[in-house]
Design brief:
Layout: E1 2-4, E2 9-12, E3 21-24, H1 33-45, E4 51-57, H2 65-71, E5 75-76, E6 82-88, E7 100-104, H3 108-122, E8 138-145, E9 148-157, E10 162-169, H4 178-192, E11 198-202, H5 207-213, E12 216-227
Length: 228
């Protein structure tokens, strides 16, 4: 669910997890902070949530919002409280390796393989049942090396751009170009759909490889956790 109002955007995923309940795109006056925060909390409570993250971008107002949130008791997200908004508008500068195959996950087995890779890379629980498919505009990709699934990533296709997220490679398969192959696959699908523009929110681990592929930095995003 995505709630868009003049002063903020609130994005809600599945479950009471701070990274699945995100307040962002803040545009309000400093004196309105308490009111805005109470409104966000109320919307979340009515949906059974008790925690969220605030993603404060470069152009958020008030400009000292991060400092004000710290004063209210919010804490920096762990392990990485800084993300960089990055954009790719040209074909990837580094070719994908020929020995890595990327396919869109269509079957339950493929979707489950993608989630198992994510659980290893991000430290989450291992699923025993495949998750539901995301629909035609939200796809999961799996990269295969030597016939085995070794990396996964997702993409959300919008009317103007494609959002990339969830990129992860098994530790034993890193260094073979699976991440680059996943970027190339999503770029190809973006071109095919007529929206050759990739955007992503990059943490410390993904920024170097995205820069090598040709992404450029466009903004900073500070991430704070709000438990209420």
């Amino acid at each position: 669910e995505r709630i868009v109002v003049a002063r903020y955007v609130l994005w809600l995923g599945a479950g009471d997890d701070p990274h699945l309940n995100v307040a962002q795109r803040f545009r309000f006056r400093a004196g309105e902070l308490d009111e805005v925060r109470a409104e966000i909390h109320d919307r979340l409570r009515r949906r059974g949530r008790s925690v969220c993250t605030w993603e404060v971008g470069t152009h958020a107002t008030p400009p000292d919002l991060v400092e004000r949130l710290h004063e209210l008791g919010l804490v920096d997200d762990e392990p990485d409280a800084l993300a960089i908004g990055m954009v790719l508008t040209e074909p990837p500068a580094v070719e994908a390796p020929a020995d890595v195959e990327v396919r869109v996950a269509r079957t339950g087995e493929e979707l489950l393989a993608a989630e198992r890779i994510a659980a290893v890379a991000f430290g989450g629980p291992q699923l025993t049942e495949p998750p539901p498919a995301g629909g035609p505009d939200r796809l999961t990709y799996v990269a295969y090396a030597d016939g085995q699934p070794v990396a996964r990533a997702s993409a959300s296709f919008g009317p103007k751009a494609v959002s990339l997220f969830g990129g992860a490679t098994l530790p034993e398969a890193r260094g073979r170009g699976a991440y680059r192959a996943l970027v190339a696959a999503r770029w190809g699908d973006a071109v095919e759909r007529g929206t050759p523009l990739l955007v992503t929110q990059a943490g410390a681990m993904s920024r170097p490889i995205l820069a090598r592929v040709g992404f450029r930095e466009v903004c900073e995003i500070r991430i704070l956790v709000d438990r209420f």
